[in-house]
Write the structure tokens for this entry.
Amino acid sequence: MYIGTDFLIEGGSKLFLSEINTGVPAGATEFDLVYRQKYGKPSGVFGSIEGLAKKIHGKSFKQYIQDLPYIDDLSRLKIWMDGKGAIPKNPHKALILEDKWIQYKLFSEDYPMIPSQIFNVEDTGKYENLFLDGGRVVLKRRYGRGGKGFLEIDSPALLRTLRLEKDLYLIQPYVKSRIDSYSFSLRAAAFEGRFICTFASLSSRCTSNHGIRFFVEPRDGLYLTNSRFKVSEVIQKAWEADIFFKGNVPDYLYQDVYVEKIADASLVIPERLFNDIKRISASLSGHLDALDLDKLPRSCLESNPVLAD
């Protein structure tokens, strides 16, 4: 399975797996752009992906993706997650893998996932320990992306004022993944149990999605190679978008699909963490392929009456 895995690094040394994205998530295009910025030549990442698809599946990567039995349902789901379309009716079972609570239940014992609970406002008392010693929490939609529905909360009192749909949000301790004045995350792409590439996103917002893209280098420590980096804007259609949406990219996604901000610096991370990112993303890609979807629990797409209506 082709996946994009998102990682956070707290305190410069502690790695967390934040979430897993299926379909044709962003990763290769951004990596190629930061690679070109650093080395002045193409990365070869697209050829690597095509080579794997032809070797393992006997077809192009585009054909492999578009032959997946759930790809149309998944594209409709992503549009719904963006708040721009209807929820898929009777969706394919594979869409359960986009549910962050299901991801946590499946993989938290084997991978360093952020501790998570299903949030319900009537249970606020259960979450007060997360605020000890000045702690904060975040709330995320179980089916959410692009930072939509993401809330950062600094007190139990504020938590009690929320009016959110029952069982549709996760609550997690806030992970301080920051460098200088930026929040940051790393996206790793993997395919058929093989690590493909990784890049970093930095933002002055509380979430780093679609932030400034950086090349990632494994060395000692955590730092930017140039804290006064310059940013260039690149306008070109993402390779992933045409494949996933079969040439019909929704107009509202123009900024996400066509525009990237590329830094002329690298994010250096500890080599140990870089190797962990490679290992975890490759392992998850193979792990997901091996799942028996019929034996998985129901997701909130299937079980929540708010979504079923």
